[in-house]
Amino acid sequence: MQKNIKILLAEDDTNLGNLLCDYLKAKGYHTILAANGEEAFNLFAKGTYNLCLLDVMMPIKDGYAVAKEIRKINDKIPIIFLTAKSMKEDKLLGFETGADDYITKPFSMEELLARISAVLRRSIDDNKEQEQTNFIIGKYTFDYNKRILQIGEELQKLTSKENDLLRLFCINEGKVLERTYALKAIWEDDNYFNARSMDVYIAKLRKHLCKDESIEIMNIHGRGFQFIIHK
After folding, report:
1. Range 126-147 average pLDDT
2. Domain boundary at 130, 164, 190, which?
3. Is residue 124 domain-shared with residue 152, that is, in the same domain?
4. HSE-up (13 A, CA, CB side) for residue 83
């Protein structure tokens, strides 16, 4: 599992950070170490990672703040918090800010490795869903590879952007799809002009799907959209 797995490790304790980094590298994980929260987010924004290990108590930006910013860009990447805090409230806050797991210091290297392996396994299972190309959307069927949306005998050939956007909605059905994440996933840039373009394509998708009233693309103020199929 370690092959080609890249981990972003954020730990402000230099000795512990170097120890963890060296250990994970020895276990075959490509590990990049950040000394504080700001550095961690800048590295994440510029690179591609498979998992984030974030210390909670860090200078400039704490782990919670970094996780929130990461989730605005990528709501799929696994995040594990490393912390000296063991209070129930702290753990709940960790999960509310996007953590997949939470490990309390002091911990053994074997425990950390087991947590990483478990989270990565779940992530791989989730990624299999990301490979899906055929969907049932209420009364419609959607073939991503052929770019065809069909209801009854009526076929609608989608543009490439409509096609990619509809698939992104389908694999995130019921979840809030962050505007920034959608823009970077499809347009590769979340600038103003791309944002306006995405709004146009969403309006087109609503029109394509209007023959089934159970389908709704909701605007979530300040965040993005939610694709709902009312059952």
Report:
1. 83
2. 130
3. no
4. 23
Task: Please report, as a single letter, which amino acid is at residue 173.
Answer: E
Model pTM above 0.90: no
Query: What value does the mean pLDDT take over residues 4-29?
Result: 94
Contacts of residue 202, defined as CB under 8 A and 6 or more positions apart, other chains included, come to 165, 217, 225
Mean pLDDT is lowest, of 60-69, 130-139, 209-218, for 130-139
- Let me know if residue 161 belongs to a domain: yes
Nearest-10 crossing angle of helices 63-73, 179-186: 50
Domain that holds residue 202: 134-229
Specify if 1 maps to a domain. no
Q: Are 73 and 180 in contact (CB under 8 A)?
A: yes
Same structural domain, 81 and 162: no
Q: Are residues 24 and 38 in the same domain?
A: yes
pLDDT at 91: 65
What token pair was written down for 40? 């961690």
Residue that is last in its domain, among 95, 130, 165: 130
Phi and psi for 225 in degrees, rounded to 5? -140, 160
130-134: which pairs have CB atoms within 8 A and are 24 or more residues apart?
130/76, 130/171, 132/170, 132/171, 133/167
Helix or strand holding residue 220 (H, E): strand 215-220
- Tell me the per-residue pLDDT of 139-184, one tens digit each, with 9 for 90 and over: 999 999 999 999 999 999 999 999 999 999 998 899 888 898 889 8
